[in-house]
Amino acid sequence: MRCYELTFTRFNRARQNSLYLTGVLLCSIFAVNACTTSPATGGKVISFNTLAEEKRIGQREHPKIVKQFGGEYNLPKVKNYVSDLGHKLATISELPGIGWKFTVLNSREINAFAIPGGFIYVTRGLLTLASNEAELAGVIAHEIGHVTALHSSTRQATGKMAGLGTLAAGILLGKLHRSRRYPTILSEPGVRSRFPGRKIFIPNRLRH
Prior knowledge:
Number of strands: 5
Order of helices and strands: HEEHHEEEHHHH
Shape: globular
Structural class: mainly alpha
Strand order of the largest sheet: 3-5-4
Strand content: 5-15%
Number of helices: 7
Helix content: 40-55%
Low-confidence stretches: 4-8, 19-34, 37-41, 157-208
């Protein structure tokens, strides 16, 4: 190999290493700046959203979700019962004052989920399966826990950090690979155990 070829190879390796370290440094900076304290656990989690920002996200997405699931279930007795039960549970959570909203969706689908900002949803299909208040309270408390643990923000932040890691690796390889991971709809054991033999789906994402 000629001298100038050796020089070019060394320069190229040094350049790649420098770019890689820059990518890693960017990841570290984002991780430090994105750390916040989980109200539920007291531990540090990676979150790119403040509680106020999560509230705005929830307010933006709420009408879409209601429409997607066929509107609200407007029987006052049922609406008030679920709302009262939800607020009783929320008052003893780590975030009692964020303006919780509990909505019964007019859908036969067996479903319960939460979105950022304290928006909790249960379907009328799920209500028909709950044999007592304790079972329903367990489901609602489970979803309140997702919100207070900054569950949604942590998941979003993890995706952003993974994206930064991919960027750093892409720089090292001299090319970028564009990929998108779509979270699946999962069946959660904590809820499933309350309704043995039933198939319950809990969305773990916002639908856009």
